Amino acid sequence: MSRCKDITKQISDLTERELSFWQRMDLRTHLILCGMCRRFQANLSTIRKFANREMSSEDPSEKPMLTLEEKTRIRDAIRRQSY
Amino acid sequence: MQDKPIKVDAVTWVDSYGDALFAFALSRLRDRSLAEEAVQETFLSALKSVDQYRQTGSEGAWLMGILKRKVIDQFRAQSKQPLTLENDSAVESLFDKRGNWSKSAKANGSMRLDAIEQEEFRVVFQDCLKKLPPTQASTFWLREVQQESAEEVCKVLGISTSNLWVLMHRARLALAECMKTRLAMENQ
Question: Where in chain B is the domain with CATH 1.10.1740.10?
């Protein structure tokens, strides 16, 4: 049976690449037997769901902007270089 | 005859493009002062190369192109030493010598993250992200929160695809563990 460390890598890789047939079989068998790895997989999908939602919940009217102070600092730096 | 003609009024760039450039820089760098610095550096570089700029495209696109290179420079500076993938102690402690979950990992192994609220998630997630090595944090942030393509993340961070997979694996292990620990503490 594959070690949990390798299995967690395969679980993580699921979002990044296609696993081979044998890797998929191996993963499926392991998950039936290993509660820790099942929990890891569930927690990853929770983190993923929330992380994705972080982005879409951003209000476009609250787009980050430079403060007046930051703008002044940048203008000063430009003036120092141009003149 | 002026000896140093200024063809553009660079100071007006700040009002015209400052916010758009800043929003982009902040989404990548996750730090206001780093983002401000990147925007400032962009304008200063642009000022130096304004002679080479032949108004072929839009001024905004030209400045954005410069900013993107500044952001990449910043990431390279962040990961001071070349990326090493060996011996990540936070991750190593989760497994025993044989590669199975370690005792300490099993201690709060049953902790579930799915009962968490979005607000609580935000706070704990940001805290835990700060604890990751910078390149791991940037990888996870760009790929999972900003939802950039794998190709783009590799390009920005200057890493290979297989490094990306390794960094995602480590970031996920460390984040899940950190968040479980935090929530277990708060729910006691």
Answer: 11-78
A47 half-sphere exposure, CB direction, 13 A CA radius? 29
Pick the CATH number of B11-78 from 3.30.565.10, 3.30.70.1350, 1.10.1740.10, 2.60.120.10: 1.10.1740.10
Alpha-carbon span B14 to B1, nearest angstrom: 28
Point out the residue among B36, B40, B169 whose CB comes nearest to the CB of A9: B169
- Give pLDDT tens digits for B4-26: 444 568 889 999 999 999 999 99
| Residue contact B176–A40, C-beta within 8 A | yes
Q: Residue B39's closest chain A neighbor by CA?
A: A74
Neighbours of B24 (CB within 10 A): 18
Per-residue pLDDT of A21-67, as tens digits, reads 999 999 999 999 999 999 999 999 999 998 888 776 665 567 789 99
